[in-house]
User: Fold this.
Amino acid sequence: MDLDVARIENAVQVIDPVFLNTPQYLDEQLCSALGDRAVTVKVETANPVRSFKGRGADLMLSTLAPGTPVVCASSGNFGQAVAYAGRARGMPVVVFVPETVNPVKRERMETFGARVIAAGADGHRRGRPRPPTPNVILTISTCRMASRRRSLRASGRSESS
Assistant:
């Protein structure tokens, strides 16, 4: 997808202002190290999620109808971002996390209102609980898993082969 000024202008109108106007500065040490090129650094920890992922998650959820349940798999920042945006937009959020998830990140997802489910070493497991309604958005990693399963079925192979 190409950059489009109209899409960027629209995003600025719908993304929660807490994720906009990220502080930035010229890093003289990096400028020097890179042959006197201008290097601008953004301070992405100056928002409630402490990550740039808040902007993308909020933009994504802004495209959904209020109340739409959202499901994702994450080991931290993306799950926090989806949980934060979901809470702000009145959307129930379920985050599948690896069993080894950082407990602080898990707690923040729960604090932002997500239902967090530990699901195997990589955040995926068979027999997942069904989401509350069929209108669910899945993360790219989950979509890739589903696409892989379809490809394996089409080829006659199984996930274990």
